Amino acid sequence: MTLEHLTYCDQIVRQSAELRSHLAGADLSAPVPTCPEWTLRQLARHVGGAHRWSTEIVRTKATEPFPPDQVPGAAGPDSDDPAALDAWLAEGAENCAKVLREAGTDVPVWSWTGPTTSAFWARRMTHETLVHRADAAGALGAAFTAPADVAADAIDEWLDVLSFARAFRSSSGKLGEPGQSLHLHATDVPDAEWVIEIGDDGFIWRRAHEKATAVVRGPLTDVLRVLYRRLPTDSPAVEVLGERAVLDTWLAKTAF
Asked: I want to staple 220 with a disulfide (CB 3.0 to 4.6 A). Which of 26, 46, 72, 186 is the partner?
């Protein structure tokens, strides 16, 4: 399940605006617990740099790896002025969305998952921004919410990304024992459920309500944050049933 291309473009701008709202007036030198060794300022520069990198990949129709350090302005503003950082974030998101809207879905381009199209980058930048907004919200003790269709697609996309990353999976060891499974169950959104089946070589996944070796139940955005390692599995926001070790192994082996 994916969203419309123009919805992704709009969400890049919207999620960036919400990230900026978290950062407004905050101490940008504060640490981000879910991104070790990053401050809020470094988190913002990462997001804005990613927007500019993906923009250049699509704009230039790059079909080979595009070094991020060749992207003009990707390192962020020269000063630590919060207003300059805010303007730089806004500009990067708007330009990213503009280029993606103009490109449409079918421009052949490079990605780190292999040859793909511009549609990949619209979806990836939406969820890159969404999840890093969750990082900022968590660091500041702010509430994290998201439209249900966007949050559900973020889970779909993350499972797709992991499915593509065969080299990553093999270098990180087994995701679990063949035959083990995970069930992700959002309790506040109808039909927002996923089953992940672990096999000899990676995993398969589908949207379904089925029994599993381990189950994560809770509000959709909290299930999302658990899957992305942004919320501890012992958080009172979610319920873990079955063999918790299966979930712990999965999370440990799917962390970038």
From this structure: 186
User: 200-252, pLDDT tens digit by residue?
Assistant: 888 999 999 999 999 999 999 999 999 999 999 999 999 999 999 999 999 99
Q: Please, how many CA atoms are within 13 Å of residue 95, restricted to the half-sphere of its CB?
A: 21
Closest CA to 125 of 37, 246, 15: 15
Homologous superfamily of domain range 5-144? dinb family like domain (1.20.120.450)
Reported as a single tens digit per residue, the pLDDT across 32-49 is 999 999 999 999 999 999
DSSP for 160-228? HHHHH-HHHHHHH--SS-TT-EEEEEESSSTT-EEEEEEETTEEEEEE-----SEEEEE-HHHHHHHHT
Question: Among candidates 152, 122, 130, which has minimal Cα distance to 1?
Answer: 152
- Pairing state of beta strands 202-207 and 193-199? antiparallel
Amino acid in position 17 = A
Instruction: Tell me the C-alpha distance between 251 and 130, whole Å.
Output: 19
The domain spans of the chain are 5-144, 168-253
Q: What is the pTM of this model?
A: 0.95
Q: In the chain, at which residue ranges do the beta strands (DSSP E only) sit? A: 108-109, 116-117, 181-186, 193-199, 202-207, 214-218, 239-242
Task: List, for residues 36-95, the tens digit of each pLDDT value.
Answer: 999 999 999 999 999 999 999 999 999 999 999 899 999 999 999 999 999 999 999 999
Which fold would CATH assign to domain 168-253? Nonspecific Lipid-transfer Protein; Chain A (3.30.1050)
Task: Output the CA angle 100-67-155, nearest 5 degrees.
Answer: 50
